[in-house]
Each structure stands twice: as structure tokens, then as C-alpha cells.
Design brief:
Mean pLDDT: 88
Bound molecules: iron/sulfur cluster
Strand content: 15-25%
Number of helices: 11
Low-confidence stretches: 1-10, 423-435
Largest sheet: 8 strands, parallel, barrel
CATH architecture of the largest domain: Alpha-Beta Barrel
Structural class: alpha/beta
Length: 435
């Protein structure tokens, strides 16, 4: 294939009027990838069903990848495929054919960690770009010069860099830089952890991480002792806070970072829609006005919080985080909002066709959000089943219902409710998986 560097590889200078920074979103399946693109992602990264981490994520078949590439093109979006397992000698069978098939499918980049994968792809003269995974823990510009010499097209920086380091590296404009701005963190250096291997014999670098760091432990200084070191922390977890970088995006744009990456290929479509649309608004505001005010950033943070299930923090952007910044004691993950319905279409001036995702009741407050609109409060009045019978509650996930409310009904929009506002206690049909 001769699409050499069809992916725009130019460096983002961060100046007004130049190409906008890329917002790169995760997707565990086709539905999530399309949602991410509809909600404002410039690119999505996905895992194929081979040679990728996140083996538990619902990975893409080659047919799915082809379909996604077609879909992305219609929106001017890009598709990156992770080929980021660290292969052992027995893992190479079919790799060459797989890399060529990805090229035929029309992807824009692979993200790989192993020099064996990267050099094989380079030797095949594929048309897509080669991006060096964060698993390489690239934390300085000398390393980026090395990757440039290896003819790589982009480097994903280590999550362990401070904002100052990210800016200084990006300003050197050696290669396009991708930096994480949101999502789960490893408690160890990303990609350099064998905790899961040790505890469960599941290899984190071959897609099997059991998230052993997030388990609850009792810590003893003497194996014979029956008293944990700190009784007030009887159950100790190394569960790290998620990264949230709303306050740092402006600096990253101005320093010339090329791509802002959201983590979470195993997250729900609702999570992806919420987080992507919030960062989309933030980036657009900064390009439009040259900055994002404190008030605007506060609004974006509140919006993101509607999707969170873990506490967030600045990660390493402000320096090495201490225990207070990085760990949260209460391991239980909480959500404040629930995704209750998917908007299918407006039927007439009054009624909207919805697909139920979680239980909700008529005559209750909710919020609509969707691609390219600001979230809006609504009051759902009567709800009818498909035969036109009034309903007392919508409790069957995937049931089609007609609701009466005064407010926007964007195609592919979502309706969410604050948990506890009424009797919304239904089972979540869009599962909230952990990272
Ligand atoms: S999620 Fe936890 S167990 Fe898994 S690789 Fe990261 S630090 Fe290790």
C-alpha cells in the first residue's frame, strides 16, 4: 500500500490558526469507537484481536477495523491500533501477516512497544505511522532523538513525566508527542509491573493484568505477627487515582504537544461520550479564546465527574505524587450519574423515541447531552411503550419507549440522571468495567 504518511505527521506548533491538537480516545468495541468519534474525538485507538494488551477488552476483528476506518474517514478521524504486547519467542507467528492486513484495512497508525514489532512494521514499508508506546517509559528528549533515528513517527510519553517535562520535550519539536490527559494510572511505572504475573500468573504485558494493585491487602512487618502495621489501615490498597488534566491542557497546547490521550479501552460508551465531549469543549474553547477561564474549567471538571467512578488527581504533572495525591483508601468505586436512555430520534414536536439503558421513571428530572451540544436539563413527563400505553417505570434495558419532554433530542444523544434523584436503581446495561 502506498499511503506513506497519509496521517498528518506535522508537529503541532500550538499557535492560533494552526492545526488543532488531536484528541485521542479509547474504544473497546465498534459501538464505543463510533461514539468517541461522534462525540468529538479526532482519533481513536483500539486493540485488534491479536498482539494487543487488554485481552479482556472486547477487541476488534479485522472486519470491524475495516468498518471503523470507513466510518472514521467520513468524520475526518483517524484509527490507531495497539500492537503493544511484549512478544516472547513463541508469540511471533502470524505477526507479519497481521501488520500487512492492518495496512490493507486502512488504519492510520499502530502503537507498539516492542522494537521487534516496530522494526518489522518498518521493514514492511506499511502506509501507516509507527507510534512508540508509553510502555517504553520515554521521559526525555534524548530518547525521542533515538526514536527519530529509528524512523518512528510519534512517541507516547510516559505518564510519569511532570507537566514541565512534557512541555520542554514537546517544545524541542523532535517528533510529534502524545501525552495522556485522562484515565487510569498504574501504581508502578506503566508497563513495568509483574504484580499480576506474581499473584495470578496473568502477564500484564501480554494483556492479562488482573489489577492486583487494586486488591485489598493487609500489611505485616513480621510474617509471624497477627497485627497489621497500621491497624487504622487494616485493608490497604495500592489503587491509584485516575489522572485528570483539565488544568494542564492549555499549557500542553501552547508547548506543541501533538495529541492528548484519554485512557480506558474497557470503559463504557457512556463514560467515553462524557469524557470525550468534555475535553472536546475544553480544547475548542482554548483555540477559540486563547485560554480557558477558571469558571469554564470548573464546568468541564464537573462534567467529567459525571462519568467518573474513581477519584481523580493530577498524576505526575505537578511532580511525584505522594500517597495522599496518588492513592485512595476507599477502594469502592462510585458513580453519581446513571446513563438511563439512548436517544433514537424525535417522533414529533412532543415525543422522542428512546432506548432504555437503565431504569428510570416518568415525571422525573434528567439531563440530555450529545454530540456538539452543551448538556441541558430536562423534565421527563409521560412515557409510553411502543403500543402507546402509558408506563409507570422503564425498567427493561434495550426496550424502545416514547417519552414526552421539552428539550433537545440530538441523534446519538444520551439521557442521564443523578443517582438517588428518584427510584433509578436499575442494573447498568452498559457495564462499568475497571481498567
Ligand atoms: S494496573 Fe496495577 S497490577 Fe496492573 S500493571 Fe498496572 S500497577 Fe500492575
Amino acid at each position: 500500500m502506498t499511503r506513506k504518511n497519509v496521517y498528518s505527521c506535522q508537529l503541532n506548533t500550538g499557535k492560533q490558526g494552526t492545526r488543532k491538537i488531536e484528541l485521542l480516545a479509547p474504544a473497546g468495541n465498534l459501538e464505543k469507537a463510533k461514539t468517541a468519534i461522534r462525540y468529538g474525538a479526532d482519533a481513536v485507538y483500539i486493540g485488534g484481536n491479536r498482539f494487543s494488551l487488554r485481552s479482556r477488552a472486547s477487541n476488534f476483528s479485522m472486519e470491524d477495523i475495516q468498518e471503523l476506518c470507513q466510518f472514521a474517514k467520513e468524520f475526518g478521524a483517524k484509527v490507531h491500533v495497539t500492537v503493544n504486547m511484549l512478544p516472547h519467542p513463541d508469540d511471533f507467528e502470524g505477526l507479519k501477516e497481521y501488520l500487512l492486513e492492518l495496512d490493507e484495512a486502512g488504519i492510520d497508525a499502530i502503537i507498539a512497544a516492542s522494537p521487534a514489532v516496530l522494526s518489522l512494521a518498518r521493514s514492511l514499508d506499511v502506509g501507516y505511522e509507527l507510534h512508540v508506546s508509553t510502555q517504553h517509559s520515554t521521559t526525555n528528549s534524548k530518547s525521542i532523538e533515538f526514536w527519530k533515528d529509528q524512523k518512528m513517527d510519534r512517541v507516547v510519553l510516559a505518564r510519569e513525566c511532570t507537566l514541565e517535562q512534557v512541555s520542554a520535550i514537546a517544545k524541542k519539536q523532535i517528533l510529534p508527542i502524545e501525552a495522556f490527559i485522562h484515565g487510569g494510572m498504574c501504581i508502578s511505572y506503566s508497563g513495568r509491573c509483574v504484580l499480576s504475573n506474581h499473584m495470578t500468573l496473568r502477564d500484564a504485558n501480554r494483556g492479562g493484568c488482573a489489577q492486583s494493585c487494586r486488591w485489598k491487602y493487609r500489611v505485616f512487618d513480621d510474617p509471624k505477627s497477627e497485627t497489621p502495621i497500621s491497624p487504622e489501615h487494616r485493608l490497604f490498597s495500592m489503587s491509584s487515582r485516575d489522572l485528570q488534566a483539565v488544568d494542564f491542557v492549555e499549557e500542553m497546547i501552547n508547548s506543541g504537544v501533538s495529541s492528548l490521550k484519554i485512557e480506558g479501552r474497557m470503559k463504557s460508551a457512556y463514560y467515553i461520550a462524557t469524557v470525550v465531549s468534555a475535553y472536546r469543549r475544553l480544547i475548542d474553547e482554548i483555540y477559540e479564546k486563547g485560554f480557558a477561564s477558571d469558571e469554564f474549567r470548573k464546568e468541564i471538571k464537573m462534567e467529567i465527574a459525571k462519568a467518573e467512578n474513581r477519584p481523580t488527581g493530577p498524576g505526575f504533572f505537578k511532580g511525584i505524587p505522594d500517597r495522599k495525591v496518588q492513592l485512595y483508601r476507599d477502594h469502592d468505586e462510585t458513580v453519581t450519574q446513571e446513563y438511563v436512555a439512548e436517544i433514537i430520534e424525535r417522533i414529533d414536536d412532543e415525543k422522542v423515541l428512546l432506548r432504555v439503558r437503565n431504569k428510570f421513571t416518568p415525571f422525573s428530572h434528567a439531563e440530555v447531552f450529545g454530540p456538539n451540544i452543551k448538556p441541558a436539563s430536562i423534565f421527563i413527563e409521560e412515557v409510553y411503550d411502543e403500543q402507546g400505553n402509558p408506563m409507570e417505570a422503564c425498567s427493561h434495558p434495550m426496550q424502545m419507549v416514547m417519552a414526552r419532554y421539552d428539550g433537545p433530542a440530538p441523534a446519538f444523544g444520551m439521557i442521564r440522571k443523578r443517582l438517588g434523584d428518584d427510584t433509578t436503581t436499575g442494573r447498568n446495561s452498559d457495564s462499568k468495567e475497571s481498567d
